[in-house]
Amino acid sequence: MAKKIPVEQEVEIAALSEEGLGAATLNERPLWVRNALPGERVQARILKRRGGQRFADGQPLADLNPNRVASACAYFPRCAGCSLHHLAYSEQLQLKQAHLARELQRVDVAADGWREPTGLTRLGYRRKARLGVRVVGEQVLVGFRESFSNRVARLDACMTLTPKLSALLQPLKELIANLSQPRTIAQIEMAEGDSECAILVRHLDVLTDSDLEQWQQLAAVFDVQVILQPAGYDSLQPLPGQGSVRPLSYGIAEHGLSLQFYAHQFTQVNTVMNRELIRAATGYLGDVRDRLVADLFCGIGNFSLPVARQGAHVVGLEASAEAIAMAQVNARRNGLTERCNFAVADLYQAGASNDAISVGGQAARSGRYPEALIIDPPRSGAGINLEGWVGNSSLRQIVYVSCNPRSFADDALRLKHAGFRLREVGIYDMFPQTAHVETIGHFVRDQ
Ligand SMILES: C[S@@+](CC[C@H](N)C(=O)[O-])C[C@H]1O[C@@H](n2cnc3c(N)ncnc32)[C@H](O)[C@@H]1O
């Protein structure tokens, strides 16, 4: 008969996982401990068992790791929004760089050089969030998930959200508790632009007049745009009497740009680090005057427009028709329509994506293929289609921005096979205090 394992155990932490969990072994099986660092002896309380693995909360007892710091957040480690508040920031950067290095080693791709890890923010950086809502008895919870569970964390504030968004948590909880049917609110999304915040209220049932009045008051008191979402994103509507749903905007001062976006559209969550990322990408591309650059997975034009501002002709491709429409608006608002050619394309469809790049290139500069690509795909990476995009000999360089070291490494190997050298690589810390790794790599073809 299998030996029953007590819920409380004293264990020693051997390593820190890529997810920011302390790794220990218990009865020859892995135990993952939150709030635990290598070398420490911790009291582990098992919270979850799944597939032969166990997940535990940790209370450090002895041999504290020299890189342990007091968490700035009272909700750590229970709230799963972050996993590294207990680790010194310089070590967080090292952890992320080591993660990326291991992935590149796995596929045997060596970079000529590494950028110093870039991390210019610590707290209060997060301009977008999707939060769960739960009614527990008399109380309403609005927050991220709890770690190792599907419960919503009890938060009154959040240190990684911008102060303006964090300040909305408590009023939101109070407002939802006062609604005619609090349980009708399923989720809240928040977004902050340079001059306005918006919240998307996902509701499962019709809101009464008195409910709507309460939302109107919150909008007025906190100077926030409240957008109702009765179903999918195509159902978004303003509060009665509030005109239409307004886009937010962010500036990229260095390039004299202002970009609009709707609260539900993809934008990089950390404005400061986004500017750094754009600076790195444009720096790698160098002098692009009158050159043809394709921006794949271009979203609302976050990289396309700075590159167009620097004098390039840009083909921007992206699956979301709504994002492409916004990229076109952004090109117009910034006087860059002549230099930009945005089109909807499913880049995970081989033939379609190859055609889209060539056709886009022809439209922008008669009959030419791009000399440079910017690739910023979802977590799954560019995948096998990448090989089709990089065969043309006109293509000299690729700037690859990634939110997943594993798919980045797989794509780096594909590029190596296609004759590209990884000239430089580095991490950009978009999500401090979390284990999220954002990477930028510059690939060049020598002959
Ligand atoms: C990481 S975001 C990058 C957006 C943009 N580069 C930026 O910095 O804001 C990835 C983008 O890929 C788009 N996308 C997802 N699947 C796609 C597909 N099959 N084909 C083309 N674009 C896709 C998403 O809509 C999203 O805008």
Characterise this structure.
The structure is a single chain. This protein has 447 residues and is of the alpha/beta class. It has 3 domains: 8-68, Beta Barrel (OB fold (Dihydrolipoamide Acetyltransferase, E2P)), CATH 2.40.50.140; 105-120 and 262-445, 3-Layer(aba) Sandwich (Rossmann fold); 128-192 and 197-245, OB fold (Dihydrolipoamide Acetyltransferase, E2P), CATH 2.40.50. 25% of the residues lie in helices and 29% in strands. The chain has helices at 89-106, 163-166, 169-178, 209-222, 271-285, 304-309, 321-333, 350-364, 385-389, 405-417, and strands at 8-12, 15-16, 22-26, 29-34, 41-50, 53-62, 113-114, 128-136, 139-143, 185-192, 197-203, 224-229, 237-238, 248-252, 257-261, 292-296, 313-318, 340-344, 372-375, 397-402, 420-428, 438-445. Helix 1 (89-106) packs parallel to helix 10 (405-417) and helix 3 (169-178) packs antiparallel against helix 4. It binds S-adenosylmethionine.
Which structural traits does this protein have?
447 residues, eight-stranded mixed sheet, Rossmann fold, OB fold (Dihydrolipoamide Acetyltransferase, E2P), 10 helices, globular, 22 strands, alpha/beta, 3 domains, single chain, six-stranded mixed sheet, binds S-adenosylmethionine
